[in-house]
């Protein structure tokens, strides 16, 4: 019996030494081995909050704002907490496309609710002058490469936000018979526009209208 107990004790000691050799002993100073990338991505909730935030250079909302416009945007948000920068930029892109296409097609009705009166009148005058000359625009907005808020302000309840657009446009002018007299649909032209959108904050009309245009 004594021999049997001694043998069991020796086995226990041997297993203990093997376990120590495999797992080691934590002293509190060992370097923690990083988890594989797959495991880190699979559990974002466990990551520190600072890591969850994308770097500023990769944040679309930050990229869409020039530094000098930040204080003005803070004033807009203070006056209207529902204002969303990303949503505004998307809306500005849509308005840019719709206004240009309405102007090219001579669609005066669309311009009525997209632009302030003096801007609309300027577009309409150009549309009618073009029609009198017998010219037709066959333009295409190929892409909007950049839409960046470059300025913003609030005076009373009147808010104004300036957006710089970089776009590629294929432009063709045809005569009354459809013959090309200028431009080409195969070559896109880089355009740089600066548009100002305005809105009366907290009004029943949620739409921003084009209040001014200029070239960059």
Short overview:
The chain has 8 helices and 5 strands. The protein is α+β, with helices and mostly antiparallel strands.
| Termini Cα gap | 99 Å
Radius of gyration: 32 Å
Shape: globular
Percent strand: 25-35%
Number of strands: 5
Instruction: Enumerate how many helices there are, as a single number.
Output: 8
How would a textbook summarize the main sheet?
5 strands, antiparallel
The helix/strand order is HHHHHHHHEEEEE
Overall pLDDT: 78
Structural class: alpha+beta
> Which regions are unreliable across 5 or more consecutive residues at pLDDT < 50?
1-59
Helix content: 40-55%
Structure, described:
This protein is α+β, with helices and mostly antiparallel strands and 216 residues long. It is built from eight helices and five strands; from the N terminus they run ααααααααβββββ. Strands 1, 2, 3, 4 and 5 form a five-stranded antiparallel beta sheet that branches. Strand 2 (140-155) and strand 3 form a beta hairpin. Helix 6 packs antiparallel against helix 7 (108-114). The radius of gyration is 32 Å and the shape is globular. The model is unreliable at 1-59 (pLDDT under 50).
